[in-house]
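Figure 6 in text form: structure in, sequence out.
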């Protein structure tokens, strides 16, 4: 009798051990357990830790609650300004309702992937090329709103959407490079023209000062000569002002055989009179001419020889 009781107790213990092994479940910290009893969803979601289910009547499904990083394959489309581009992105999402993620949609990962590709093509068609290249934050927000609206019904929340890369055709890249080069050249020309304008204003002011003080022009001439002679050149350049040439032209006598033209008082009054040169400037030019004549000597032309042939 005692042996039968011990055998029954051992059998019951073994049955309890088998039942406990079949009913025991462990839910990890980043998971939630959804229980179906005879195919019907139980209201309660099992939290992380140790839990028990009915082995035959119930089934436990574990749902990962971590943020999932899903790359979106590159989508080719035509922008609003008729440019063909290829755009790829990445989507960050997580499950916020484990029961809806299992019941409301067959495969929430595949659903989010297909919705991301469709929304990305729609964003490409609604945007310009400049927005895709420089205004990605606004496009990311718009893409996130397009994905978040249907995903909430699946128990999924879109955490973030990022456009990774925009691939352009080679012809478009060359056109953009030429455009940037032309824009930089335009700005360089504008800067050079502005510099020339400022320099011309300063030169005009300097010319006004020199015209008021003729000695300033002579000092500037001496500075130029010193700058040229500092280079140890064998040739010395002495610039002759145009006013001096005009003065010499007026002082030269008229050639023989030409009739003198007498100007009327009205013409003389209307003709502009050249500014008078400074005495120091004329004296300096005269000294320079005498020095050059002393160095070179007077030019002597050979006299024609008498013809010895008898007449």
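Output sequence:
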């Amino acid at each position: 009798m005692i042996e039968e009781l011990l055998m029954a107790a051992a059998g019951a213990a073994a049955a309890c051990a088998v039942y406990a092994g079949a009913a025991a479940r462990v839910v990890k910290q980043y998971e939630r357990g959804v229980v179906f009893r005879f195919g019907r969803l139980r209201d309660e979601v099992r939290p992380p830790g140790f839990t028990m289910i009915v082995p035959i009547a119930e089934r436990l499904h574990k749902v990962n609650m971590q943020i999932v990083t899903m790359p979106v394959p590159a989508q080719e489309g035509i922008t609003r300004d008729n440019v063909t581009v290829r755009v790829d992105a990445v989507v960050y999402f997580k499950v916020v309702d484990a029961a809806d993620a299992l019941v409301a949609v067959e495969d929430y990962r595949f659903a989010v992937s297909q919705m991301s590709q469709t929304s990305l093509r729609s964003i490409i068609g609604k945007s310009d090329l400049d927005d895709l290249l420089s205004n990605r934050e606004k496009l990311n927000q718009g893409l996130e709103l397009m994905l978040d609206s249907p995903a909430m019904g699946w128990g999924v929340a879109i955490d973030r959407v990022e456009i990774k890369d925009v691939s352009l055709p080679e012809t478009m890249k060359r056109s953009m490079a030429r455009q940037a080069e032309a824009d930089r050249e335009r700005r360089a020309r504008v800067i050079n023209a502005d510099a020339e304008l400022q320099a011309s204003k300063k030169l005009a002011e300097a010319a006004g000062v020199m015209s008021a003080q003729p000695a300033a022009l002579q000092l500037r001439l001496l500075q130029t000569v010193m700058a040229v002679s500092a280079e140890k050149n064998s040739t010395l350049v002495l610039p002759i002002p145009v006013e001096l040439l005009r003065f010499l032209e007026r002082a030269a006598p008229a050639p023989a055989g030409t009739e003198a033209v007498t100007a009327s008082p009205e013409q003389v009054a209307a003709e502009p009179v050249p500014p008078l040169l400074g005495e120091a400037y004329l004296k300096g030019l005269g000294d320079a001419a005498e020095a050059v004549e002393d160095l070179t000597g007077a030019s002597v032309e050979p006299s024609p020889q008498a013809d010895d042939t008898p007449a």
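Caption detail: The CA atoms of residues 74 and 88 lie 4 Å apart.
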